[in-house]
Write a structure and sequence with these properties.
Blueprint lengths: L1 H12 L1 H40 L5 E4 L16 E6 L2 E6 L2 E4 L5 E6 L6 E2 L1 H7 L4 E16 L8 E8 L13 E5 L11 E5 H7 L6 E4 L2 E10 L8 E4 H7 L12 E2 L1 E6 L5 H11 L4 E3 L1 H5 L5 H38 L1 H9 L4 H37 L3 E8 L4 E3 L2 E3 L2 E8 L7 H27 L3 H6 L3
Parallel strand pairs: 2-18, 8-13, 10-12
Antiparallel strand pairs: 1-15, 1-16, 2-3, 3-4, 5-7, 6-14, 7-8, 7-15, 9-12, 10-13, 11-12, 17-20, 18-19
Length: 467
């Protein structure tokens, strides 16, 4: 009981100094909480982007290699290209060309960013050790180009050929139907489509209406919304996508082909092994995970993530070091000023251990006070970030699937998908606990240095300094 009475009296007597030390620790704690919360907020925003770009519920995504554009003057195989000649635009297929009138519209559904793979590979991937499930899909782009004197920028929308028997794996996995209905097994060979709510709103589409894909009218059976940031605009049954899609404009049909395989592992620990097994089975394929895709996304969300991880981390460390140093120096200065007091206590029979315990108790109390103030400062910093933080953006560049021949060679137009992601700083209990432990540790470190000073103190030397 005397321990707490003495401790309280000493803290009151040196209240200004105790508050100054606590504030130093609090600034460090508050900054740690603020930076940690900001970093978590950026990572959450990045995760929202990846959900839309990558496929919710998917551990590994396998895509065919990116198709290479045809070379100028080549036969193009079974591909077609648009060439600008002296007499205007021409469509050339296997070396045979015919002129296109101004205003002519080309509408094709192409596998733009990945080469096709045989659908039979889906079953082989599903049979690999560590794979819980696998589903094939076709990520396509419907491109409409109007011919004029110069090639115009194509208008496009994304189409997902969905395996109706595995709707819970891939882009449609977390979709919520807002109007109409979702796919049924009987829809596998029908011209029916689901449309993303944002795309439907911006283009005036409604459930019960129609949408034209590759020149074919599809009935819109439902409007869906996704938690991700950039979901496909339209979903159609995989079999219909395979029947309509081309491997490039006017290229070969993609019947019995897929260009994407969505894989979920039996456990998170199995993901590396699953990646290796798929790489052996499909050496030419591109294998991605959410973490690898994050490196391809540009925009402020990527920059903010790097800034939070690099600058924020080192800034927190430097402030904590400074706060600890101030606490240690002030504690040792306080001990120096209390030489007479400690010498008297030793002369009265107090052991060094008892005096050290008393000083450590005072330092612990100061550390706890700093932790409490620091948590308050941290939440204040989080509130400021939420109030002033700009909306983050993420951009992913994708090929359109068109190859336009010009005098300088082949040109492959690209389309960019930019999404806006609100940033909200997220404070976790773990971050608060870690910050509190840091403040307490700072107080105890200061107490240890002060105790080391006391341990070297002899009563005769202390009393000799009494003037």
């Amino acid at each position: 009981m005397f321990f707490f009475t003495y401790l309280t009296r000493e803290l009151r007597r040196r209240l200004r100094q105790a508050i100054f030390i606590a504030l130093g620790l609090a600034v460090g704690v508050g900054l740690v909480i603020t930076v940690t919360a900001a970093s978590a907020g950026v990572k959450n925003a990045q995760a929202d982007v990846l959900k839309g770009l990558y496929g919710v519920g998917t551990d590994v995504t396998v895509t065919g290699p990116a198709p290479s554009p045809p070379k100028a003057g080549s036969g193009n195989g079974n591909r077609s290209s648009i060439m600008m000649g002296p007499n205007g635009a021409q469509m050339c297929t296997n070396g045979k060309c015919h002129s296109l009138k101004n205003g002519y519209t080309i509408d094709n559904l192409a596998s733009s960013s990945a080469s096709p793979m045989s659908e039979s590979l889906v079953a082989k991937v599903a049979a690999l050790h560590g794979v819980a499930a696998a589903a094939g899909g076709l990520l396509l782009t419907d491109n409409k180009t109007t011919i004029s004197q110069t090639p115009s920028q194509p208008t496009s929308f994304t189409v997902d050929g969905t395996d109706i028997s595995h709707q819970k794996l891939g882009p449609l996995s977390n979709a919520v139907t807002t109007t109409g209905r979702t796919f049924r097994q009987a829809d596998s060979d029908k011209n029916v489509a689901l449309v993303d709510k944002n795309y439907a709103t911006s283009n005036g589409l409604k459930s019960g209406g129609t949408i034209t894909i590759a020149g074919v009218k599809f009935s819109i059976i439902g409007i869906v919304t996704q938690p991700g940031s950039n979901p496909p605009d339209v979903y159609i049954p995989l079999a219909r996508a395979q029947a309509l899609a081309k491997n490039g404009p006017a290229g070969a049909s993609l019947k019995n082909d897929v260009n994407t395989i969505y894989v979920t592992a039996a456990s998170a620990a199995d993901i590396p092994a699953v990646q290796n097994e798929i790489a052996k089975l499909l050496p030419a394929a591109t294998i991605t995970t959410p973490s690898s895709l994050a490196n391809e996304v540009s925009g402020s969300v990527s920059s903010a993530a790097k800034l939070a991880d690099d600058l924020g981390k080192w800034l927190s460390i430097l402030v904590l070091i400074a706060a600890f140093a101030v606490a240690v120096l002030l504690t040792m200065a306080a001990v120096s000023r209390r030489v007479r007091e400690f010498g008297t206590l030793k002369a009265l029979g107090w052991r060094g251990r008892r005096i050290i315990t008393q000083v450590m108790g005072e330092s612990l109390a100061v550390g706890l006070l700093g932790a409490a103030i620091g948590v308050g400062l941290g939440f204040a910093g989080v509130a400021i970030i939420d109030a002033i933080a700009p909306t983050l953006t993420a951009t992913l560049i994708q090929a359109t699937g068109l190859h336009i021949m010009t005098p300088n060679g082949a040109v492959s137009p690209t389309s960019s998908h930019t999404v806006s992601v609100p940033m909200t700083a997220a404070v976790s209990a773990a971050a608060i606990g870690a910050a509190v432990l840091l403040a307490v540790a700072g107080g105890l470190i200061a107490g240890i240095f002060g105790s080391w000073r006391i341990g070297r103190l002899r009563p005769a030397d202390a009393l000799a300094k009494v003037g």
